[in-house]
Amino acid sequence: MAMTRREFIKFTGLGLAASSLGMLGFGASGEAQAAAVRPFKLTHATETRNTCTYCSVACGILIYSMGDRAKNARSNIIHIEGDPDHPVNRGTLCPKGSALLDIVHAPTRLKAPRYRPPGGTEFKEVSWDFALDRIATLMKEDRDKHFIAKNAAGTTVNRWTSTGMLAASASSNETAYLTWKVARSLGMVVFDNQARV
Amino acid sequence: MSDLQSQDYVRRSASTMTPPMARSHEDQVAKLIDVSRCIGCKACQSACMEWNDLRQDIGHFEGSYENPMDLSPNVWTLMKFAEYENEQGNLEWLIRKDGCMHCEDPGCLKACPAPGAIVQYANGIVDFISDKCIGCGYCEKGCPFNIPRISKKDHKSYKCTLCSDRVAVGMEPACVKACPTGAIMFGSKADMKHQAAERIVDLKSRGFENAGLYDPQEVGGTHVMYVLHHADKPSLYSGLPDKPRISPMVGAWKGVIKPLALMGIALAALGGFFHWITAGPNEVTEADEEEGERVLREGAAHEPEKTS
């Protein structure tokens, strides 16, 4: 396109004037208004109630995951905040609880049982079957060896004092009931939970 | 009406347009930070970063409880710790949650030259619209509380939004919800003032004679208010301004120099137009054209051969 110097200057001036008018606020403002507030990110997220994993206060939390649980949608936790209906914390959380999202996605998070054999130097990942079988075997060996059925006076006591169990404190009522049943039915008397730590 | 939203504008930076006002009968909101109840746990800081998807790089221990040491584009609220020895010789640990105060008369918005980059909603929240931000840093200079920070990565300015996305759907800001001691509260500005008044009576009865509300009228009041045990000396709290004031330079540039400069531009354009009408364009004569052609021809002829 042939253009004289004069035409070039005219076009440049026009462009400058038009953009200046826009910058002075004569342009469309509706777009800016519509796009203002960051859209609320939890509108259709799935809300799940749970208990904070950290300390024995056991604050109620709401876990938000993306997706509406449709068959083909894979849930991913995107946000965690306090549960306002939980009597313990009524929606509040401590700094650790407020940052729970980052332990969910932490690359260092333990996701499977790990085993270091006696004399070994390194932990290696094992299956849950292996881990549970190993725990059961050791428990049974120890119980068979040290179980006390009767005390010195001949009274039946059914005690197993050489193995203990430390349970979580952040359990629901039902979980606590079952934990109690399992431990006590084995005769276990050394039994405590993290709330006393 | 589709351009309207749950929070309507009342002010827009560097704009001549009048925002739609008909639906602005909205309750003013406020966040009340009761400094006397704060234990400095930083749950608000965590919750803010979590909700707003901000992550600051891991830094170094600087010998202070403050972590990180300053606000940044990724740190919109920060606990500031000050040690104060009172008249009785006792140590008082004054912990203040620093962040945007959401002024009724925002210095950042007044100083901003980018149309629509800073807006104020009818409920009082002052928000940065980042895609309109040009990263000039005038908001930093205009802010009496030294809050906005420009990102070195994307050259945009960032600060607390008072969780405008949560407030828009009827929720409280993330920091308010998290606070385990109830030191941060949220509600209508009237309710928060009432809450503060009750708390101040309580503090006074416990010997804090100068307890009071920090809602500085120099900036038209704020939508983030503090209950201070020493309201007579706000600067004890890690440099909270006693009398926050928008820099007079903002008023000078925007109030005096800007209209003068615009007038200058208009006069220059007008002068040019009348010069064109009266004197006419600067015509090129035939002789000038021929002389130009001759210079071009001779220049081309004398140009040495290019070697490469």
Defining key terms:
heterodimer; A: 197 residues; alpha+beta; three-stranded antiparallel β-sheet; three-stranded mixed β-sheet; 6 helices; 8 strands; B: 308 residues; Alpha-Beta Plaits; 2 domains; 8 helices; 11 strands; 17% strand
Largest sheet of chain A: 3 strands, antiparallel
Please identify, by name, the CATH architecture of the largest domain in chain B.
2-Layer Sandwich
* Rg calc of chain B: 27 Å
Work out the helix count of chain A: 6
Largest sheet: spatial strand order of chain B: 9-2-11-10
CATH hierarchy class name of the largest domain in chain B = Alpha Beta
- The helix fraction of chain A, in percent, is 25-40%
Computed structural class of chain B: alpha+beta
CATH fold description of the largest domain in chain B: Alpha-Beta Plaits
Low-confidence stretches of chain A: 29-34
- What is the number of E strands of chain B? 11
Residue-averaged pLDDT of chain B, rounded?
91
Shape of chain B: elongated
- Indicate how many domains the architecture of chain B comprises: 2
Strand-helix topology:
The complex is a heterodimer of chains A (197) and B (308).
Chain A: H1 5-26, H2 30-34, E1 46-51, E2 60-66, E3 76-82, H3 95-98, H4 101-104, E4 114-115, E5 124-125, H5 128-146, E6 148-150, E7 156-167, H6 173-185, E8 188-193
Parallel strand pairs in A: 7-8
Antiparallel strand pairs in A: 1-2, 2-3, 4-5, 6-7
Chain B: E1 9-12, E2 29-34, H1 43-51, E3 77-85, E4 91-99, H2 107-111, E5 118-121, E6 126-128, H3 138-142, E7 149-150, E8 157-158, H4 164-167, H5 174-178, E9 184-188, H6 189-205, E10 212-214, E11 224-228, H7 248-278, H8 286-302
Parallel strand pairs in B: 2-11
Antiparallel strand pairs in B: 1-5, 2-9, 3-4, 5-6, 7-8, 10-11
Could you describe the 3D structure shown?
The complex is a heterodimer of chains A (197) and B (308). By secondary structure, chain A is an alpha+beta fold. Chain A is 34% helix and 23% strand. Chain A has six helices and eight strands, in the order ααβββααββαββαβ. Chain A has helices spanning 5-26, 30-34, 95-98, 101-104, 128-146, 173-185; strands at residues 46-51, 60-66, 76-82, 114-115, 124-125, 148-150, 156-167, 188-193. Chain A has a three-stranded antiparallel sheet with strand order 1-2-3, with no helix packed on it. In chain A, strands 6-7-8 form a three-stranded mixed sheet. In chain A, strands 4-5 form a two-stranded antiparallel ribbon. Chain B has 308 residues and is an alpha+beta fold. Chain B has two domains: 9-243, Alpha-Beta Plaits (2-Layer Sandwich), CATH 3.30.70; 257-301, no CATH class. Helix content of chain B is 30%, strand content 17%. Chain B has eight helices and eleven strands. In chain B, strands 9-2-11-10 form a four-stranded mixed sheet. Chain B starts with 8 loop residues before the first strand and ends in a 6-residue tail after the last helix. The mean pLDDT of chain B is 91. The chains are: A alpha+beta (197), B alpha+beta (308). The interface between A and B is large, with 35 and 42 residues.
